[in-house]
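Hi, can you check this record?
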Amino acid sequence: MNRASLAVLLACLVGIPVGIGAFTFVYAKGFSYLSTDPRACVNCHIMNPQFDAWLKSGHRHTATCVECHLPHAGLSKWAAKAEHGFRHSVAFTLQNFKEPIEITPRDQKPLEHIVLTVNDLLTSKRLFDRQHW
């Protein structure tokens, strides 16, 4: 096999998967997942009931999906976003998920932490307010 044939073969072996991956990323609105915009959560349509419930909730003005469901900073935030994105894209592409959709125990930990933190803040504020009536 000559060099030109190897170059074409290599270009196809690399170019085709990269092209398909890039097309899929753009088609699936992949860049939206890098933001904190809650509308990114409904790109796959299965999250519409959860998004609608959040829209009607009292905390929609102060908390987004990412603030409650993912770590807040550093490498752990981006690692969690990448892991969620990959896991969700595989699950939704293969239609391999429970309905109604359920949070995994691993994904529940950041949510539990923020709920307890907010609850502590609200409780201490209520106690402070009562002490200063």
